[in-house]
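step 4 of 6: structure.
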Amino acid sequence: MSAIPAPDLRAEMLRGAQSMAAAAPPSHERGITSDLSVDEALLIHAAGWEPLDLVCGVGVVSVPAGVWNWGRGMIDSASDSHDASVDIAAQQLRAECGKVKGHGVVGVRVEVSVHPHHVDVELVGTAVRPIHRKDPRGDDAALAMPFVSDLSARDFTLLLRAGWMPVGLAFGASFVYAPRRTAGTAMRQSTQNVELTNYTQAMYAARESAMEKMQRSALNVGGEGVVEVKVTEGPMRFARHAIGFTAWGTAVKLVAEEHQFVRPDMVLPLDDAVVQFEAESLRGTGSKGRRHR
Amino acid sequence: MTGPDTGGPPPDAAPGLAGGPHGDLPEAAVRRLESSAFSSGLTVPDFAACLDLGLEPVALVQGFCVMQWGWYGSGSGYMRGMSPFAAASQNAGAYSETYQCPHGFVGADHRMWGQNLEQSWVEAAWAQGYGSSYGRMVEEAEQHGAHGIIGVVDRVSNVADTGTTEFHFLGTAVTVKGGPPPAGGVPWSTFLAGQRLTKSIEAGFMPVAVVASMASVRVWAYCMTEYLMEGNYNWAPPRPVPVDQVSRAHMAVRQLARKHVRQMLAGDELHGAMIDIAHRELSQGDEVIDCTLRGNRMRRFKDYDEVALPRPTVRLA
């Protein structure tokens, strides 16, 4: 890697100011929009890609009436609503990406809200495309099926460097009723410290179901695995007896012949420990001084 | 659609507070700005980076505007455009979609039609408040002969439950050492400061203005949307169904916000876009969805310099 000389910042600033001294000629070009930070934009450019447009996808799907009432086992209708919302939002995101000839969407922000009667999913990200070099998946394949990834530009760049590509968003969700014990069992166990096996089993099964769905959706988009998996769980705020589990991440695929080892350099920071003086130590009530890093 | 980068308050903006050669600045602002000391809202690292770039802070500049939101209830003139058959008649080109009930006449309370309607009067009011406060900040900077405003912070907040909204802008006016004044004397502006601004300049992007827009869409639900969103036992299908009217309204509001911002770009680029959604469910499936989109309008002044891929490191600490 050749070292690039540092630019003269003041000269660059002056050049920028001079460009603003005259009014810009009228332009009908479609300007680029992006929610990438300055760092991310520079990094993605260094990796040979460029941002194109801010793209969005939204899915709102109904949850059938009565599914949150007390019951047993999995709440399949709610899981189906969730999966359908994600699918619709991802399709819209891909469609918007396709309109600007993007090869994929990076840094997708995922927002899911489950309401008693509907599930809302919002996806927002930046469509990108390679600048000079070709897409490792092939340009036609990439345009036909742009990838959707919630990886940051930094992680996307690192993934490319390791010979992998994101292929899509992998999502799985499952909802389960908190199981109940019979009155007799509850009475018998009231004075015991015991494992509630029905709870353990129900929650275990629900978690596994969400993860399985996520892996299945990764395979459906041609992925070999899922990275940056996020898992959420908790009771529904409107139905405390129902617990929701979601798992999502970015499905990835090896596009190089084999994994490229990144071999990071090791950095040893030489910051000194700071001795922080505490005024209370003068009065003899506190410690004499603590070492903080 | 007026935007902050159009500069200057709209014609119906508030009259001057102090009058005279200093326009509508309050007297205290005039005295503060005439002082020989400079002020800046920059952090110390940002201040240092600003000096490295050859920027000299002039003053902390600000702009305010308090707006009242009118009442848009039934019978209000603002609700014209609601129609089962037509697009919004009072706003040519505004987004509007209608939905017809598949059931026929069922009863007086059955919602036989629905509409998604862009509330352009809400958007215009927001743009007026945002644009006026921005214009006042720029005016302060302009009076100091500043070339630009960096580290801009904008805040939109409700004032003490009075049904009013305050738009507030704050930034640090700067001059470029040895640089020419900007075209028309109107300072450029950016949310960026410090190293992020430095990196943008290094990469060949000069800030033009902070840009923002707000889009607002009202969902007037028809029967199917009402049943699906409210979980009606008798009418809603017993399986998950996409709620098209609401999905399309959500997409439309985001597309409108992007369209409005794009109109302000005039071929320039929008960096660091921030998109925020305020979503209020009313009743019977009705909703109001507001989307604000803000970012830095940047202009390329040189070709992108080659940027080497940074070396990955592992921190041993």
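step 5 of 6: annotate
 - Chain B touches chain A through 80 residues (CB under 8 Å).
 - Residues 12 and 175 of chain B are 31 Å apart (CA to CA).
step 6 of 6: archive
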